[in-house]
Amino acid sequence: MNETTTFEEILDRFGKLVYPNKGVSMKPLLRQGRDLMVIERKGPEPCRKYDAVLFKRPSVRGPDAYVLHRILRINDDGSYWIVGDNCFTGDTVREEQILGTLRAVVRDGKKTVPVTSPVYRAYVALWCDFYPLRFALIRLKRFAGRCLRKLRKGAAH
Fold first, then answer.
1. pLDDT of 72-105, one tens digit each?
2. DSSP assignment of 90-148
């Protein structure tokens, strides 16, 4: 993509966008600098809960306006509440803001994992169904990391 080509133009022209992941909001699924996202242009059908969707923030310009996050709730008004897999807070997004849907992840440029694969579906079910526990899990991981660093530092002396 050059400076003047938008994701919308690529999706309109080719129906698909293959783009390297930037940022950490979709970890552990997408790793910055290592994984590619395969996104298909959104069709006329509504999105579903747990779809990872590419949307555009209207108040932001340039590449940072585009965000890939996951739908965790469909609101009564038809809008979506979406959150990154590595995030605690979310955004409300309207249907017209959604440009495409994640269809596959290319891991390390080698292995393509489609969203229909059992491994991907298990990840989504576990990670999303336990969304309320993310705070505790991530805090526990950070705490364990600090403890291990202190233990290693103490053992080195």
1. 999 999 999 999 998 888 899 999 999 999 999 9
2. -EEE-GGGEEEEEEEEEETTTEEEETTSHHHHHHHHHHHHTGGGHHHHHHHHHHHHHHH
pTM value is 0.81
List, in sequence order, every residue forming a beta bridge with 112; answer none if it has no partner: 106
- Rounded (5°) CA angle 95-98-103: 125
Tokens of residue 28, six digits? 């552990």
Look at residue 17 and give its three-state secondary structure. Answer: strand
Which residues, at least 6 apart from 31, have a Cβ–Cβ distance to it below 8 Å? 21
Backbone angles phi, psi at 59, to 5 degrees: -90, 0
Give residue for tokens 């249907």. Answer: 95
Q: Tell me phi and psi for residue 82, to 5 degrees.
A: -120, 150
Does the 7-131 domain belong in CATH 1.10.1040.10? Answer: no
Tell me if 101 sits within 8 A of 40, measured CB to CB.
yes
